[in-house]
Amino acid sequence: MKRRSWAEPWKIKMIEPIAMSTREQREAAIREAGYNTFLLRSEDVYIDLLTDSGTTAMSDRQWSALMLGDEAYAGSRSYYKLADAVHDVYGYEELIPTHQGRGAEHLLSQILIEPGDVIPGNMYFTTTRFHQEYAGGTFVDVIVDEAHVPESDYPFKGNIDLDKLRAVVNEHGADRVPYVSFETNVNMAGGQPASMANLREVYEYCRANGIYVMLDATRALETAFFIQQREAGYEDKSIAEILREICTYSDGATMSSKKDNLVNIGGFLAVRDPDLARQARSLLVAFEGLHTYGGMSGRDMEALAVGIREMVATDDHVRSRVGQVQYLGRLLDEAGVPIVHPTGGHGVFIDASKLLDHLPQDHLPAQALAAAIYLDSGVRGMERGIVSAGRDPETGKNRHPKLELVRLTIPRRVYTQSHMDVTAESVIQVAEERDTVKGLEFTYEPEQLRFFQSRFRPIPD
Ligand code: P61
Questions:
Q1: What residue ranges line ligand 1, CB within 6 angstroms?
Q2: Separation CA 2–CA 5 (nearest Å)
Q3: Which of 67, 208, 279, 292 is at a distance of 20 to 30 A from 156, taking alpha carbons?
């Protein structure tokens, strides 16, 4: 029987109280935080949509698994359980556990990138590009043009444009391109999926040219869902089957397990080639920990092994997860708030440049909008625009990304439909008062990944 809706395939067993603050309290809190939502205390936040990273509610099975953790320094039983889960669900033979996704990106970049190399990828991700540049490489964006157009309803905005990829390889030569960095679900574009056809085509092209394909599999599960919904030939395949097929078009993957994998900390690098794994393990012991725990405790590996199997055990899990995100997207759409289309897998992205069209990009409209939403209701989102894009390392000038967005990111299995209603009400309220939102300017800007710790103040009249 076809299901009518996407009710959650779980019920709530434990709750964490949250409290609404007064407008005066929020005014003080955001000022104190330098108008940066990353610098707010979570105590001052009502509905926390900063990120879906590490904010998941674990299941009773996962909490029970914590007790089974084998904390042996070497050869932990929990490591082998995790390696089996990664192999069964993603299909990779070699597992290198790290403390989180960026630990895996660090190792991968260090073993594959030589100074002067070029790494094509489908839109930058902040930490991924940081590690590529830190290893001496240059990231080149080869995502399809539609990804930069919020209004476009193109179903696979995460796709790589093969012409752009070929042009990069022809210009620099295949030997200067160690791998294609393929994000299966493109965070900065709004949680947008790549299609299976595109994954296959990129892999075939790369294999023919001796270039690795390394996936960022962080939200590959959500992409498996979109492929099932949107790509011909996949409607009757299970999410588990689709996810495994995605990974067949790659030589390895980095993973932040804090998302799809339903845990609060952890990640991994997984590869097929034993020699690449050997190189990664030899760095792992210097930067993370011994190769049978890397950056994780035994109990964290246990909970992760359960989370990996749980996320694909039924298709209902991802269906309700993405369903909730789409529900919020629909509420904002219906109210005429400009958002990135189609609504993505992990959050709703508000088009701040369109909503606040009285502010030029240098007045940081997305940063200002995130602060304004927080002020209105205590809902915390995140800037994804000029502040996140940072400066070009060569020229030192601000990059000007085409997308200037506020991300409302939905944690997995944490909030209810009523929380989504309240969030939408607040965003709609701020949209009605858009003219009162003032631009911001930097008062402090750190050298690396500046969005995390920058401070701002309203631009004086
Ligand atoms: C997030 F503002 N994402 O979305 P780690 N790849 C991808 C990610 O989404 C990702 C990582 C690698 C976060 C946390 C975060 O600019 C930011 O486990 C597609 O966080 O190290 C993380 O994985 C890195 C927020 C990261 C940011 C960087 O909220």
A1: 51, 53, 100-102, 125-128, 183, 187, 216, 218, 256, 258, 267, 382
A2: 9
A3: 208
**CA-based end-to-end distance of the chain:** 61
Q: Is 41 a catalytic residue?
A: no
C-alpha to C-alpha distance for 79 and 301, rounded to whole angstroms: 6
Question: Which numbered atom of ligand 1 lies nearest the CA of 102?
Answer: 21
What percent of the chain clears pLDDT 90, i.e. is strictly above it?
98
Please tell me the predicted confidence (pLDDT) of residue 1: 53
Per the CB < 8 A criterion, the answer to whether 49 and 409 are in contact is yes
Threshold 0.70, pTM exceeds: yes
Contact status, residue 196 vs residue 223, Cβ threshold 8 Å: no
Question: What is the band of 40 on the pLDDT scale with cuts at 50, 70, 90?
Answer: very high
Please report which residue ranges of 33-161 form alpha helices under DSSP H: 60-66, 77-90, 101-112, 126-134
* Cβ proximity of 257 and 268 under 8 Å: yes
pLDDT greater than 90 at residue 4: no
Q: Is residue 237 annotated as part of the catalytic site, yes or no?
A: no
Q: Among 37, 48, 52, 53, which is best to mutate for testing ligand 1, by the most ligand atoms less than 8 A from CB? A: 53
Please give the average per-residue pLDDT across 122-138, as a whole number. 97
